Amino acid sequence: MQNIRNFSIIAHIDHGKSTLSDRLIQATHIVADRDFHDQILDTMDIERERGITIKSQTVCLPYTARDGRSYSLNLIDTPGHVDFTYEVSRALAACEGALLLVDASQGVEAQTLANLYLAMENNLEIIPVINKIDLPSADIDRVKQQIQSDLGLDPEGALLVSAKEGVGIDALFEAIVSRLPPPAGDPEAPLKALIFDSLYDVYRGTVVYFRIFDGRLRTGDVIRFMSNDAAYKVEEVGIFQLRQVPAPELVAGQVGYLTAGIKTISDTRCGDTITLKERPCAEALPGFKEAKPVVFSSIYPVAADDYEELATAIEKLKLNDAAIIYEKDTSVALGFGFRCGFLGLLHLEVVQERLEREYGLSLILTAPSVRYQIKLRDGSEITIDNPAFYPDPTRIESTAEPFIRATIIVPERYMGAVMKLCLERRGSNTNYQYLTSDRLEMIFELPLAEVVYDFYDKLKSITQGYGSFDYELLDYRETDLVKLDILINGERVDALSQLVHRDNAVSRGRVACEKIKEEIPRQLFKIAIQGAIGGNVISRETVSPLRKDVLAKCYGGDITRKRKLLEKQKKGKKRMKMVGKVMIPQSAFLAVLKTDSD
């Protein structure tokens, strides 16, 4: 165990985490040069294109130190986005140390702080690493000052590397083996292991990724998951070296995988404890909790015939992503679909993109919403995330919505613009402090519903890309909620309904009507697009009709002839309007998701 090191790399988005992992893997020669490619731990196309890690990976790196001792270094990679904070916390719980990566040109950002706090909660030894020192804009002295003032770490212990150029990698390896502690644990105690990830394999079922804290695990052992008491016989155990390498047994301190013919990934919950059925450990490892979705949206196929394909695709995707929850849903306008819950907006986008790419589907998504708590006059409480289930307003006593604590780090010159944006979104400024003479940390309490639309994009645009953002869920607070319906020619389109705060209803309704007007093609009759709360119409747009020139054949003569033709046309129009049905294009449903009028 003295020769094992379990560590993770944590960083803000785009600070070079995947590139550094690539250099570490190359330096230990566990993959041939001809088989190597950039972002080798990122297995999905979306991850490579967006430059983010969605599904964390693990790799065991063999390393011989300068003193001649051989070490086994387990790099437990973590997802790099705020939506996956729980997965990051479980991966960190499986480690003894972490490399905290800071970009030499960007400096310390919001998620750098958030990840540092997560690492500290797990009592990890932290090595600060300044990356991208080869950039012309790199300012190492300023970043060292930030590491001391913002993070409270010793700047003299910070390592200077360029993951792209491979500079400083040897010194980094030596720091990992000399500064990070070896794992503790008793190999003879009852088995106690932490699940930090799992993956579905078509042939072998669920592959569980785990770290052993006490005891040992061999092929043939009968294991038990402590959160749900499910028992399985282990078919194979092994370690990761980019591919899965079987091993006869794993002991305390090691990181590896197991297969046991587990059919459903939801049985293996991230953060759960594995023990032996015959000789269980006394108590589970702390920190386990169910992953709870916070953003909800309905997914429908564009063509009704694709419903079966969508059902199969979501089922298969669920096997690889246990965080998605879904149930059948139906809409008068869009037919049959699924109501899905996601960890956040990025998670929603990733799921949509994977369904469209990997399964060749064309989809329509409804406006994302959050979960509201509604207290009724008869004393009962209900929780809703779908506007379709919003009860009659006369029965409602009070409504509550989820709030978040948002941490925003920006250069001082953008302070006014950020404050204006957050106050417009019903935020309250609880605190702000100067991290350095020109950088601010601002803390706001905001309703989650205001953030799930386009808050992040707006923040990036008003701060010219310099603002960084991280959030955590707080609690539920009372709000004045109303259901905004969109009526097209007097008919309510349920798929366009939204739950909004009363103060924002008029502006949201106006923008939605304007957007839909741009998308609906003109007909031979007038089309009224209205936003309404109950029986109150709060906004309206009209798609003017195409008009045939009936006076073209009428030349000269008395004015009454022309009037007669116009009256005849008017009567015909009236009759058409009564029976007219409007075809709403797919783009109209997508337009409602964009809240900007520009």
Helix content: 25-40%
Total number of strands: 31
Q: Helical segment tally?
A: 14
- The total domain count is 5
CATH hierarchy, class of the largest domain:
Alpha Beta
The secondary-structure class comes to alpha+beta
The fraction of residues in strands falls at 25-35%
**What would CATH call the homologous superfamily of the largest domain?**
P-loop containing nucleotide triphosphate hydrolases
pLDDT < 50 stretches: none
The largest β sheet comes out as: 8 strands, antiparallel
Distance between the termini: 60 Å
Could you say what the CATH topology of the largest domain is called?
Rossmann fold
Strand order of the largest sheet: 11-10-16-7-8-15-12-13
Annotated CATH architecture of the largest domain: 3-Layer(aba) Sandwich
